[in-house]
Amino acid sequence: MKHFFLLTILTIIIVSCSPNIRSKITSKQPLLADNEPVLVFQKDEPFDNNGIKIGTIRAGDYGMSTNCSYNEVIRTLIQLAKQNGANILKITEHKTPDMWSTCDRITAQIYRVPDFRKYEKEIIWSPNRKLTWDDFKGSPKPISNSNVAATTYCGFGFETNRVALFKKIKIYTKAVFDCKLSWVAQDQVGRQDLLEHEQTHFDLCEVYSRILRKRIEEKKLTVFSIENEGNAIFKEVYDSYLNRQELYEKETNFGLNRQKQIEWTKKVEKELADLNAFL
């Protein structure tokens, strides 16, 4: 099981307004539903388009913008991409904050491809996006993993915006499944019970992602305390998460104990529902 931690360093600033959003759309497509994903490719990631190029979108700086950290800008650009029917967002230019601007300034090309899943390297947890065996794109190591049927690599972390002085910090958490490191033995593909076991690993990751967000929000951290206290909270939640994943494997016997598997699946589903406010 692989886990990772994402933390954006905070910058103290004084004023607040939205970034400057512009677009040049040449081939608008039917809009995407809110629950449909948009894949983001970074500037240095290759993207071989097999669909329709829709246009170009940009997020700039009015000169005094502050709600414009990378996370905030990308969320805005993803919504704009969906409105124009795009399911791929390929960043072509990214200027990070500097002495001239406190914003992440991003230019991206947007596309509509017929099968976005073939491009996925990671999957952000979503109630509408369940794992399939096609998502397990890694290769097993036959010597060290000869008795293992499948492996799920997932992790969670948090990011923050750059907030105005004395303003409330915005917290963004996410649980991520790593497609390239997760794998399934070829003779196990098609086993629905095993896929359910792996999905519950991912769902449990989302549970603790929400617990992390809940803990941080309840603490009411400030720009001055978020880094140290935020890291301390993360470590506590992370340690609990590791113990819970180990208990899950032990009690279900790696998914082979069907009754225990059913119990755990229902238990985790209830925990997700109870924490729905922190999605």
Task: Please give a structural write-up.
With 279 residues, this protein is of the alpha+beta class. It has 2 domains: 20-118, no CATH class; 122-278, no CATH class. The chain has 4 helices and 10 strands. The strands form 3 sheets. The chain has a 5-stranded mixed β-sheet, with helices on one face. A 3-stranded antiparallel β-sheet has the order 6-9-8, with helices on one face. A two-stranded antiparallel sheet has the order 7-10. 30% of the residues are buried. It comes from Arcicella gelida. This is DUF922 domain-containing protein.
**Structural class determined from secondary elements:** alpha+beta
Strand order of the largest sheet: 1-3-5-4-2
Give the SSE string: EEEHEEEEEEEHHH
Mean pLDDT: 88
Spans of 5+ residues with little confidence (pLDDT < 50)?
1-16
The major sheet is characterized as: 5 strands, mixed
**First-residue to last-residue Cα separation:** 22 Å
What's the number of extended β-strand segments? 10
Percent of residues in beta strands: 15-25%
Total helix count? 4
Overall number of domains: 2
Query: What does the overall shape look like?
Result: globular
Radius of gyration, CA atoms, in whole angstroms: 20 Å
Task: Give the fraction of residues assigned to helices.
Answer: 25-40%
Organism: Arcicella gelida
Protein name: DUF922 domain-containing protein
